[in-house]
Structure to design on (100 residues):
């Protein structure tokens, strides 16, 4: 199974920002000239162009019994609510909450 990474966090960890003004390789003395080594540019472009996966999300709903919670993503029940469904791994929220 492949590892999922946070592309933005990875780029920021090496000093690259989405906005050139905030990038550590931006040479403001030379009108925004990028000082990033060319090999590094290739790696950054590969990271930016890599396919991404939207995380599975769901919401907890109270089961009709009133004692269990149901995952909207997979339909399995749980005795308690968690941040992730223990059955399918979906990032969970209550039906009234919104994701970022």
């Amino acid at each position: 199974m492949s590892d999922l990474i946070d592309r933005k966090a990875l780029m920021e960890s090496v000093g690259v920002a989405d906005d050139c003004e905030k990038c550590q390789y931006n040479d403001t003395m030379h009108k925004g000239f990028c000082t990033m080594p060319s090999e590094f540019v290739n790696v950054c472009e590969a990271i930016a162009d890599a396919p991404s996966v939207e995380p599975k999300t769901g919401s907890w709903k109270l089961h009709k019994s009133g004692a269990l919670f149901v995952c909207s993503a997979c339909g399995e029940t749980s005795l308690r609510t968690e941040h992730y469904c223990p059955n399918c791994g979906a990032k969970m929220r209550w039906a009234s909450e919104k994701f970022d």
Summary: The first strand starts at residue 26 and ends at 27. The radius of gyration is 21 Å. The mean pLDDT is 76. DSSP finds two helices and six strands in the chain.
